[in-house]
Amino acid sequence: MAQTINTNISSLTAQRNSARTQNDLSTSIARLSSGLRINSAKDDAAGLAISERFTAQIRGVNQAARNANDGISLAQVAEGGLGSVGNNLQRMRELAVQSANSTNSASDRAALQLEVSQLAAEIDRVATQTQFNGLNLLDGSFQTQQFQVGANAGQTVSLASIASARTSALGVYQGFSLQNQSIGTASNTAAALTVTVGSGSAIALGSVAVDAKAIAAAINGGNVAGLTATANATTVAAGTSASNGTTSGTSTFTVNGVAISIAGVAGAGGLSGNRANAVAAINAQSAATGVTASDTGSGVQLSAADGRNIVTSFAAGGFTSATVADFGLGATATTGSTVNVNYVAPTGTTGNVVFAQTAGFANSTAIAGTGTAIAAVDISTVGGANAALAAIDAALTTINSSRASLGAIQNRFSSTIENLATSAENLTASRSRIQDADFAQETANLARAQVLQQAGTAMIAQANQLPQQVLSLLKG
């Protein structure tokens, strides 16, 4: 290699290597001082982009968890307010039950009504003043709201509208209450029964006898939301006692398929005894027939408390020429009762509820506002107290339903928060693998770079001494 002075290649090489070592040393120091493998885009351009996206997701998820916690807080405030309303309604119901008792005078009931009025005022106060961050919750203005529980758009949980707790709204519901509805011509022959709610399809309730008890059971068993029915007691009016039999003996009176023998005495003198015999014989079989008998003083009345049909027939038998009148019984026939149908429509359900049964129960009723508002409750009379019980029960149903919904959404938010915490943990771990410095590796790199930097400095010094060798040539 030529001996030169102007160009020191060895020094340049040592300087270049020292500069590269200095960059490695600076990188290691930056990583160890920040704890990050990526401190700028030049460290890892793709890794930086990925880690920044992870950061956006992590921060979004953490904020979503805070949003869900705020949702729980809102639901708790609303549920607490509804709990207070429910307690006041329970007290109002207690007072209504007390007022309905005959031991209370008009002044007593007036005093009870004073407390009811104050309780209603307190319910209205809670309904209008229960707020969360300035948002009214219980006055009917809180409609379906969306809670952002994810890091990205559209990742929401809906909280349904909270029912109004104002006394002008409580106790009133969409639906209807039908009392003493005819079932048509009573018959034990089964016929298809259907119900259609609003614009929905007909729901088959089964093949049912034209019998109040059977129809009510079919309606209740149909699991149609908000629809219930009860059967009223079936009654066969008493006949008028008469003396038609010419020879004393035993007749057969059949009730709901059970033949019952009744001893009869001919002549007017046996009328009361014949009625007593009929009552005793029929009641003895009531477990089998579901029918009881009672003497009205001029005849025998039949009743079925559960609303089943009462089907009767008569054979004079040994009581020659006798008729049912000899025992004070009404004319033989198939006698049916009536049904009561109540419907509380789910939110958004409109139109009519239509029942259809061939030659049996048929009815079409519009879904509309019904019931008595709590604001209009007046227990100062027995009739008002009884009406108040129905209104308060409807109000309690509304309040309890809202509380159940709020409780369910709280549990859902809790589950959401748990899921978000898991997501944040996993996303953070993923970002760490890309972004964070490996201290074991970086300390090794630092030690290597420091040694190389020191060696490079020494070599530059050595290289700078090489031109001195030229002087020895000049001295010769």
Helical content stands at: 40-55%
What is the count of structural domains? 3
Note the gap between the termini.
20 Å
Q: Would you list the SSEs in sequence order as H and E?
A: HHHEEEEEEEHEEEEHHEEEEEEEEHHH
- The overall pLDDT average reads 90
- The CATH architecture category of the largest domain equals Up-down Bundle
Summing up helix and strand content along with how strands pair, one would put the structural category as alpha+beta
CATH topological fold name of the largest domain: f41 fragment of flagellin, N-terminal domain
The Rg value, from CA coordinates, equals: 45 Å
Order of strands across the main sheet = 8-16-5-19
Low-confidence stretches: none
Oligomer: single chain
Shape category: elongated
Question: Overview of this structure, please?
Answer:
It is a single chain. The protein has about 475 residues and is an alpha+beta fold. The protein folds into 3 domains: about 55-170 and about 375-425, f41 fragment of flagellin, N-terminal domain (Up-down Bundle); about 175-230 and about 340-370, no CATH class; about 235-335, Alpha-Beta Plaits. The protein contains 9 helices and 19 strands. The protein has helices spanning about 10-35, 45-100, 105-130, 210-220, 270-285, 285-290, 380-435, 440-465, 470-475; strands at about 130, 135, 145-150, 155-160, 175-180, 185-195, 205-210, 225-230, 235, 250-255, 260-265, 290-295, 300-305, 310-315, 335, 340-345, 350-355, 365, 370. It has a 4-stranded antiparallel β-sheet.
